Structures are given as C-alpha cells and as structure tokens.
Amino acid sequence: MRAIVLDGFGGPDVMRWAEVPTPHPEPGEVRVRTAAVGVNRADLLQRQGHYPPPPGASDLLGLECSGVIDAIGEGVEEWRTGDEVVALLAGGGYAEQVVVPAGQVVRPPAGIDLVSAAGLIEVAATVMSNMDHVHLTPGESLLVHGGAGGIGTFAIQYAKALGCLVATTASAAKLDHCRGLGAAIAIDYSGDWLAELLAATGDRGVDVILDIIGAKYLDANISALRDDGRLVIIGMQKGTKAELNIARLLNKRATVTATSLRGRPLGQKAAITQDVAKRVWPMISDGRVKPAPETRVPLSEAARAHELLASGELVGKIVLTVD
Residue ranges of the Enoyl reductase (ER) domain (predicted)? Predict the structure, then answer.
C-alpha cells in the first residue's frame, strides 16, 4: 500500500508519498481501507518531532480516518467486511489502509458522507471527553480559545447544545464565523482578550476554559476563571512552561488540569469512541452541531495540507482524500 512517510523531522518537505508494508489486523482489530483522513495540529507536531506516538502505535501520521472495513482480526464479532466506519487512531491514518482496535471504530453519523465523517471523530472525542472531565453543566459558561479551528468550531456548538453560554477568542476576520456557530462573546485574540472577556461578563469570568494555547495563556486563563472555575489544557501551541500563581488559584478554589486523548489506555479510548456515537452523532444528524467548513486535499499532497493548516488562514477542518 501507499502512505505518507517522514524522511526525518522538520517542515512539510520531509513528507513523502511512498510504498510501505500493508498492515494486518491482530486479534481484536479491524483493518480499514481508507476513504479520508482528518488533519489535526498534533500531526504537525509529530512531523516536527515534538509529539511521538505512544508505544506500540504506528509511526505514520494520522489520528482519525473514515473508510470501509476490508479485514477482521480474530475475536471481532460486531463488524463485517464492507462496513463503513470512522476510526479514532493512535497513528497510521495517512495511509491507504490502517489497522485499529475494534472498539475504536463506529458507524458515521446519519446523513454525513464518508469523506466528511473523517474529520469528526477526533474533535468530537476530544471535546466531549474533556467537558466530561471538568463537569461542564447546562447554565455554565465556557471560554474556547481558537474558536474558528476544528476543535473550536465543534466546542462552541457542543457547549451551546448543552445549554451553556459560550465565549471564544479568534482572529478578527473569523469572529463572525464564531458568532454564527453560537458564541455569545467573540473576542479578537490580538488585543487584550482578558479585559474584554471580564467586561463582557461583568468581571465574573467564566466557569470553564478549553485551552489549546498552553503556557502563554496560563496566567490570563486563571484570571479569567470564576470561583470554582476549571481550566483544561489540551494543547501547547504557545509553550510548555509558565509560572502558576498558586495564591490566585487557592482564592478561586480553581482547578487546572491537562489531558491527552492519544495515549489513553485502549479501554478508555473505546469507551469514549462509543460514547461519541451515542451522544454526539445524534447532535450532528439533527443539526444541533454542524460539521466544520471543510477543505479537501488528496492524501498524496499531505504536505500542502500541512502548509495550509500552519498558515492559520483556513476556517474549519482539512480532510485528506484517498482515491
């Protein structure tokens, strides 16, 4: 089969379309003939050498895909060859075929074509599991950083569907997009977003923050939390180390937590995947959550897709298509 391989770590130029051995499913796994692959910022980090796959996972890029099951490992009874699925991966998606534990595949949402479905499972699993982790409840407020990206586009709609007030930061050109998704407060991150957020909330701040930025925003995020607020960090786009004001954290009885979906135990990932199908897919099928605007690029041109994502100019999701 063919796949995108890396000739070392670095820029998009290290990516190459090449012949590689075809994987075969072990007991408890299925093999998916890929129709499309979702592109995530984690892919860019792995390409640069900053986000290695967990032990035992494929060293190929790709954390989510859609396709058709074409081989089934021993002990798998719930799937048949020919079934259309989307899959949550620890790696291996940038290829014509990929093997995945059977618990991490689900059918696509009703009414969504197979290619578009490829870009849904990673963001849905990430947002849903993290909002469960910090116990976001109806009536609370959520701040989402990067509201126009794949995670942000989904998180705004998901929280609104739960009955929460949503605030977000994004570039000035993308604020109307965020408002259209349901953000009641949309702030240009190039200005003093903290001051604007506090002004918009009567100096109260928000209950929960979903942060993809990391170190650069840590202090401001703590200031933006209400009493008993919760900050969950899922990205490190602007650094990994920052100073934490523990006194401010104590005075607010606030929580700072960080999670990663990729390295979770298989049982946890399977449970999250199945929960997405039960709880999130109906929201997508009935229109409460709409898929992000989508840019399709052939898998063989994955380097161009990485350049597009890194540019920050796109709104929504990039999906790599396989002939």
Answer: 10-320
What was the pLDDT predicted at 114? 97
pTM of the shown model = 0.94
Q: What is the pLDDT at residue 314? A: 80
pLDDT score recorded for residue 292: 87
Question: Average pLDDT, stretch 176-190?
Answer: 97
Decide: helix, strand or coil at residue 162: coil
For the cut 90, the answer to whether the pLDDT of residue 323 exceeds it is no
Question: Which domains are assigned to the chain?
Answer: 2-120+262-321 (3.90.180.10), 124-258 (3.40.50.720)
CA distance 322 to 300: 8
Distance CA 114, CA 108 (A): 7
Cα 237 from Cα 50, distance rounded (Å): 11
DSSP at 256: E
- Return the structure tokens found at 260: 């990663």
Tokens of 180: 């259209």
Tracing tokens 């109260």 back to the chain, one arrives at 204
CA distances in angstroms from 156 to 70, 84, 127, 272, listed in the order given: 36, 28, 10, 20
